[in-house]
Amino acid sequence: MSDQERIDAILRTMRTQLEKHLVEESEITDPSEYEKHLVDIGRRFSVEVLKSGIKKMPKSRNEKKSPDHTG
């Protein structure tokens, strides 16, 4: 997946979340609840960015190359 495709996927997901927030926004009357809602949106965005960046990790350079036969 190219960088542009990853960006588009993240933005599609976040657009859905933001649209949902805008619908629910008028129903929130408590300022602390409103702030919590915004923090949740930011947290979801961060999770989406992290998930999109997770790739197969390279092998560890510290991994043993052969079984230990000193036994």
Structure commentary:
It is a single chain. This protein has one domain. It starts with a helix and ends in an 18-residue tail after the last helix. By secondary structure, the chain is mostly helical. Helices cover 65% and strands 0% of the residues.
Number of strands: 0
Largest sheet: none
Percent in strands? under 5%
Structural class: mainly alpha
Instruction: Sum up the overall morphology in one term.
Output: elongated
Radius of gyration: 21 Å
Percentage of helical residues? 55-70%
- Compute the number of structural domains: 1
Q: What's the total helix number?
A: 2
Distance between the termini: 46 Å
Essential attributes:
71 residues, 0% strand, elongated, 2 helices, mainly alpha
Write the layout of secondary structure elements.
Layout: H1 3-25, H2 31-53
Helix pairs in contact: 1-2
